[in-house]
């Protein structure tokens, strides 16, 4: 039997995520080999917006898959563009870990304890928008770098950073979290905390092997979140938060979806939620997106894509470029 070659970015987080998938495949009796893939987003420190968005992380792995250098690609689902790729298939969405964002602040502070004027380091328009909407007078600095690099900025160049709890958990750094942010205030990115394991669509054998790692509830929830994002015509760096969860209603299990669209200056925010049948997660996502659009979300998404950083005369002051 030939080994399954799994492609991974080389960051500690990516290697850990890939390691989990490799372990699960080995436990199912497969022979597995990990192949490191360097992406433009890893070597170039320029703002992600100038590199073509967070899709830069996914595209090098996808290229390796198409070239036949690897058979399996492990992505953070939230970094994967929603556009369909007919020659590739998401063979598995394994069980999600904590989808929330987490605050790591100086001196153990929580969001409510940070004084007005505190500087939050984040490169995410969504995090900036949701935090600005709370009206706490926070300032923002556009930062980049892997998890370890961003943590090292706390107490030095910024008062706090906001990171995915899942990423911190995976690299065993969740002990530094000073507050797990409630989705009632800060809705995570669509797909946050979940992985996507991608294969070539015509590789039936690998599709079958990897398919065993799929987790139905996570697949349903993230399908709803990504359908919403796609219908809003918003990319993976858009100021859109969404979180779906499987709930029990009177007829049995159902899918509940919450979503928010906010502008990075924090002046406008629209939040809505809906519940639908577990059998049609994409329909639920599209329906909730229609509701948001009917209530004005389209303008916020369009403005954010033209002008990702608010003008200096906006209500949130700017310390970044
Ligand atoms: N955009 C980078 C990225 N992609 C996936 C994760 C964390 C793991 C996850 O959300 O599944 C992170 C780091 C972060 O946002 O803090």
Automatic annotation (TrEMBL):
User: Could you say which EC number(s) this protein's record lists?
Assistant: 2.5.1.61
**Positions carrying S-(dipyrrolylmethanemethyl)cysteine:** 236
Per UniProt, the keywords (alphabetical) are: Porphyrin biosynthesis, Transferase
**Transmembrane parts of this sequence:** none
Domain Porphobilinogen deaminase N-terminal: start-end pairs: 4-206
Cofactor dependence is on: dipyrromethane
Give the catalytic activity. Answer: 4 porphobilinogen + H2O = hydroxymethylbilane + 4 NH4(+)
Matches recorded under NCBIfam families: hemC (TIGR00212)
Its family remark reads: Belongs to the HMBS family.
Please give the name of this protein. Answer: Porphobilinogen deaminase
Its lineage opens with:
Bacteria, Bacillati, Actinomycetota, Actinomycetes, Micrococcales
């Amino acid at each position: 039997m030939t080994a399954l070659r799994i492609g991974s970015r080389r960051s500690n987080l990516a290697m850990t995520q890939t390691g989990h998938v490799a372990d699960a495949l080995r436990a199912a009796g497969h022979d597995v080999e990990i192949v490191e893939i360097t992406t433009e987003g890893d070597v170039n420190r320029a703002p992600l917006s100038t590199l073509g968005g967070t899709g830069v992380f996914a595209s090098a792995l996808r290229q390796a898959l198409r070239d036949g250098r690897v058979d399996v690609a492990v992505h953070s689902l939230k970094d994967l563009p929603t556009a369909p790729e007919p020659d590739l298939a998401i063979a598995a969405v394994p069980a999600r870990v904590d989808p929330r964002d987490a605050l790591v602040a100086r001196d153990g502070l929580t969001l409510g304890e940070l004084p007005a004027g505190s500087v939050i380091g984040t490169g995410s328009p969504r995090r900036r928008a949701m935090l600005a909407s709370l009206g706490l007078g926070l300032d923002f600095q556009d930062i980049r770098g892997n998890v370890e690099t961003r943590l090292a900025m706390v107490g030095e160049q910024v008062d706090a950073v906001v990171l995915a709890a899942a990423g911190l958990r995976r690299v065993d750094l969740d002990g530094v979290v000073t507050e797990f942010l409630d989705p009632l205030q800060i809705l995570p990115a669509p797909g946050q905390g979940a992985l996507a394991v991608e294969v070539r669509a015509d590789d039936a054998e690998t599709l079958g092997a990897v398919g065993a790692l799929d987790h139905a509830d996570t697949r349903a929830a993230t399908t709803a979140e990504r359908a919403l994002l796609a219908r809003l015509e918003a990319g993976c760096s858009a100021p859109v938060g969404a979180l779906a969860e499987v709930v029990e209603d009177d007829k049995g299990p159902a899918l509940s979806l919450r979503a928010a669209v906010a502008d990075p200056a924090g002046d406008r925010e629209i939040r809505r939620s809906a519940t639908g049948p577990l059998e049609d997660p994409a329909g639920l996502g599209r329906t909730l997106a229609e509701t948001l659009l009917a209530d004005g979300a389209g303008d916020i998404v369009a403005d954010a894509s033209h002008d990702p950083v608010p003008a200096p005369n906006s209500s949130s002051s700017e310390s970044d470029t």
